[in-house]
Amino acid sequence: MSDTPERYGSLSRWFHWGMAILIVWQFMKIGDLIDEGEHWVGRTLVPWHISIGLLIFILGILRVFWAIKQYPHRPQLSGPLAPLARIGHFLLYLVMLLLPVLGIFYMIGKGYGLKVFGLQLVEKSETGIAWMASVGSLHAPVAVLFLLLVIGHICAAFYHHFILRDDTLKRMTR
């Protein structure tokens, strides 16, 4: 279950791939831009966007604590691009935790309330909260940044696997 210098443990891999699936699901929100969301993706996946976002936030917090606990044992980055990889990983974690907060701010700030997995956590409001709506409006541009970071992360994994031919990708898949 724990990480070793040679590979990530089962819990780290579960966090990584489980959250990757949820994050790809979240990116399906872009389906709202196509035909005003009137298609299978818009009717089946997109309505779960807020609930999945909160789930990602909770899992992200747990993942950060697990990563900190495992840090001395996990595979260490080396080579000339290691500082760039560390910055990239830090930004991925930061944005992964920031996006749900911005989404919640947007929903509450606009007066929509907050309903998660069928539970109304915050009631709708006629007035909303202007400062929360303003801060929450950063949700969409930060989501674009997150998409770019994820694409960069995937490209880096493929670069390691197919160009450098090292075990970086294998440490997260076996």
Automatic annotation (TrEMBL):
Keywords: Cell membrane, Electron transport, Heme, Iron, Membrane, Metal-binding, Transmembrane, Transmembrane helix, Transport. One of its GO terms (cellular component) is plasma membrane. Residues 7-173 form the Cytochrome b561 bacterial/Ni-hydrogenase domain. GO terms for biological process: respiratory electron transport chain. It comes from the Bacteria. InterPro entries: Cyt_b561_bac/Ni-Hgenase, Cytochrome_b561_oxidase, Di-haem_cyt_TM. Its main location: membrane. The chain crosses the membrane at residues 12-28, 48-66, 87-108, 142-164. It is a multi-pass membrane protein. SUPFAM superfamilies: Transmembrane di-heme cytochromes. Its cofactor is heme b. Coiled coil: none annotated. It holds the Pfam family Ni_hydr_CYTB. The keyword rRNA processing does not apply. It is found in: Cell membrane. The keyword Acetylation does not apply. GO terms for molecular function: electron transfer activity; heme binding; metal ion binding. Belongs to the cytochrome b561 family. This is Cytochrome b. It comes from Advenella faeciporci.
